[in-house]
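Anyone able to model this chain together with adenosine-5'-triphosphate?
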Amino acid sequence: MKWYELSERATLEVTKTDKENGLTAKEVALRQKQEGFNELAEGEKQSALLVFLEQFKDFMVLVLLAATLISGLLGEYIDAIAIIAIVVINGFLGFFQERRAEKSLNALKELSAPQVLALRDGKWSKTLSRELVVGDIVKFGSGDRIGADIRLIDAKSLEIEESALTGESVPVPKYTRVLEGNEIPLGDQENMAFMGTLVTRGSGVGVVVGTGMKTAMGQIADLLQNAEAVITPLQRKLEQLGKILIIVALLLTVLVVGIGVLQGHDLYTMFLAGVSLAVAAIPEGLPAIVTVALSLGVQRMIKQKSIVRKLPAVETLGCASVICSDKTGTLTQNKMTVTHLWSGGKTWNLSGTGYDPSGTFSAEGKEVNVSREKPLQQLLLFGLLCNQTTVTKKDKDYVVDGDPTEAALVVAAMKANFTRQNVKGDFKVIEEFPFDSTRKMMSVVIEGKDNKRYVVTKGAPDILLTNSKSIVWENRHQQLSPSGREEVQNAIHSLASQALRTIAVAYRPLESYETITTEQAAEKELVFLGLQGMIDPPRPEVKQAVKECRDAGIKTVMITGDHVITAEAIAKQLGILPKGGRVLEGHTLNTMSQSELEDVVDDVYVYARVSPEHKLKIVKALQAKDHVVAMTGDGVNDAPAIKAADIGIAMGITGTDVAKEASALVLLDDNFATIKSAIKEGRNIYENIRKFIRYLLASNVGEILVMLFAMILALPLPLVPIQILWVNLVTDGLPAMALGLDQPEDDVMKRRPRHPKEGVFARGLGWKVVSRGFLIGIATLAAFIIVYDNNPDNLQYAQTIAFATLVMAQLIHVFDCRSEKSIFDRNPFENLYLVGAVISSILLMLVVIYYPPLQPIFHTMAIAPREWLIILGLASVPTFLLAGSLLTRKKS
Ligand code: ATP
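re: yes, here you go
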C-alpha cells in the first residue's frame, strides 16, 4: 500500500477509523486479535534445558563427574551416587539463579517499554506501544520515538530523524500533503512517520497504517537483533579474578594430592579428594551470585522508584561524586501557580493554590476588577492563547495535559474567566511554533474575528525583552527606551528574587493575511506586554537529600534554564548553594573555553539560563577534574550529556524516549531524593558483593588449608570428598546469597565515594580473607587432631568433628563479613535471611551427622554432646580472635 498517495480522508476510510474519536476499545481488541501485537519478532531464546546443561560445562565439574564414574565402577556406589546428587543439586541452584537473573532483566525491559498517546473512544490516553493497531490515531512530540508506521494528518514544525531506517542523520521536515509519484523512497515520504524513528522537533498527529513486522522497520528487523548480554566492570574483574583463583586452587590441590601421595596415602583416594577440593575451592558460583545480587539490588531500586537501564550503572552509582540536577520538577514540584503579574509598571497579586481555578486579583492589597484593567486582561488572554496545555476537572482534581508552566498560565486566565471555550469565537490560532529550551520561547499567530492578526510570543523575560522594540505602557505602545528596559529588568529581578519562575508575554500586530512561516520571523520586533510570576515549591524531601549527599561526599549542582536570580533563591532554600559558592550563567559559559571552565568548575554550584547544549560542557569539565558525574535530563537535547555522564539519569514522567534511551537510570517519580536513594542502594550492593566475596574466599582458603596442613603433618584426610562437596553446596551457598541481601551499614552514606579504580580487595579485604581463612583452616585441623589423638582407631569420628568445626567456623564467620569494622558493630538478627540461612545450614549439618541412614553416605558419626564444646570453642576463634584485636585497635 502506498499510503503517501492517499488523502487524509482516504486514509481514514481505508483504515476504518474516525479522526475525532479514534477506534473503540472493542475494535482495538478485535484488530489485535487479527493483526497480532505491534512488536518485532524476537530472536530465538535459549531453552531451559540448555541453560540447565550449561551448569555442568565447567571443567572441574566434568572432571569430578568422571572421577565419580570411576569410583562407581570400582564399586563405591554410595559415594558415586551421593556426589552425583550433590552436583545435580548444585546445577539446579545455578540454573534457578540464572533464570531469576534473566527474569528480572526481562521485567526491567517491560517497565521501560515505550508508551504512546492514542485516541480511543474519544479520549487521549497513554497506551503501550505494543498495543497499537492499524487505525489508531496517535499524537507525538519532540523527543518521542515513533511507535508504528503512521500517515500524518497534522504536523506542526515537525521534524523526524530517520537514521535508523535511512542512515541519514539529518532530521527531515514532515508535512501532511498528499505525495504523487511512483515508488517514492522512504526518506522522501514526507507525510509518513516510521516506527523506530525519532521526533526531534515540533509535534504531530497521524493514523497508524502499519504495525509489527508489517512496518518498514519490521522488514529490516532481522538486522537489528543484537541481544548481547551486558556485563559490568565488576563482573569482568571477577571473571579475571576467577581465572587466577582457578589456577591457584588447582596448584594447591595438586600440592595437597602430591604431598598426600608422598606421605603414603593411596592415589585413588587422594585423587577423588583432590578433585572434590578443587570443585569446592574454585568459586565457580561467584559470577552467578554477583548477577543475582545486582539484579536483586535493581529490584529493590525499582521499589524506591528508580529503574536501572544499564547494569554497570549500579556499580558506578556508588562512585558518584557530583550530581548535576535539573531544577524544575526534580528539585521542585513542577506544580506551578501564578501569584504575581506585572505590566506597564503595575503589579497585581493573584490568590489561589495549585491548579484550582479559584482566586482573586488584587493590587496594593485591594481586590481589582479584571475587566477594568486592560493590560492585565490582555496579559492573561495571550498567556492562554499562546499555549498548548489543557487543564480539566476530573472528579475533584484538576488534571494537566501538557506543560505545568503553561498550565499555570491557563489557570491564571481561568481565574479571570478566560477559557479556550469562552474565547474560541473571538480568536483562532492559525500557526504555532512550539517551545524549545534553546530558544526559551514559544509563539503563535492568531486571528481575531475582525480578521486582524497578531504574533503572540511568551518565554524567558530577558530574552523576550531583547527581542522587543516597544512596550505597552499606560495602554499605549511606546518605544522601549534604555530607562524603560531598566524598569522591566527591575520588575523581572523583583519577581525572580522571590524565587518565582517568570514568563513574559509579548506580541506584534501583523498586516491582515500576513503569514509567518518561521519562528525567527515571528519572534522579533515585539511589543513587550508584561510578566507572570509563578511559584514552584521545592520538593519537601530534597533539602534533607542534598544534605545526606553532602555527608556522603557528593556535591549537588543545580542546572536550570530558569532565571539566575530565581535559581539562586531556590538553591539557597535547598542548601545547594553554600557561602562563597559560585553561580554561572549560560552566556558566561558561552564565552569560557573548556579549560577555563575546568579551572572554576569545582566552585560552581548553580548554572542558570543554560541550554541543554551547555550540559555536555559541564559534564566534561567535571570529568576532567576526576569527578564521577551523575547528570539528569529529559529532552532530546539533553541526550548527549546524559550519554557522556558516568551515570546518565532520565526523568520517567517528563522524560522523552530519547533521553530515556540514552540514560543508565530512569527516575520513576522525577525526584532528586530518588537519586540519593539509588546512590545509597548502589553503594550497598557493592558492599554486599564485597561481603560475600570475603565470605566465600575465606571459606575456600580454610578448606584448602586444612587439607594441605594435614598432608604436610602426615595426618590422615581430615575431611572426606563428600563432606567437602557438602560444605561447598550448603555452607557456602545459602549464607553467601543471604549476604547479598544484607542491609547497608549505618555509615554507608557517611563515607566518601569509592574511587572507580578501587580493586575488589581494597580497604583491607584481602588481608581479612587470608587471615580469617587461615584461622578457619587451623581451627578445623586442631579439632581434628585433638579428637584423633585421643582415639586414633576412630578416624571417622575425628573427621565428623572436623566437618562440624569447619561448618560452624564458617557460619560464625559469616556474621563478621557483614561489617567492614567489626562483628560487634552489627546486630546479627537484623538480616533475617542470613539468620534463616545459618539455621538451615546448621539443621542440615545435624541431619547429616545424626540421622543414621545418612551417616554411611557422609561418613559421619553421632557426636557426643561434650565434644560440641571443643567444636564451638575452636569454631569461634577465627572470628573473635581478630574481631577482638580490631576492637582494641579502634579504641586506642
Ligand atoms: P530546568 O532545566 O531546571 O528544568 P527550566 O524548566 O526552567 O529548568 P526550560 O524548560 O529550558 O528550563 O525553561 C527555560 C525558560 O523558558 C523558563 O525559565 C521560562 O522562562 C521559559 N519557558 C519554560 N516553559 C515555557 C513554555 N512552555 N513556553 C514559553 N516559555 C517557557
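Confidence is low (pLDDT under 50) at residues 223-228, 886-892.
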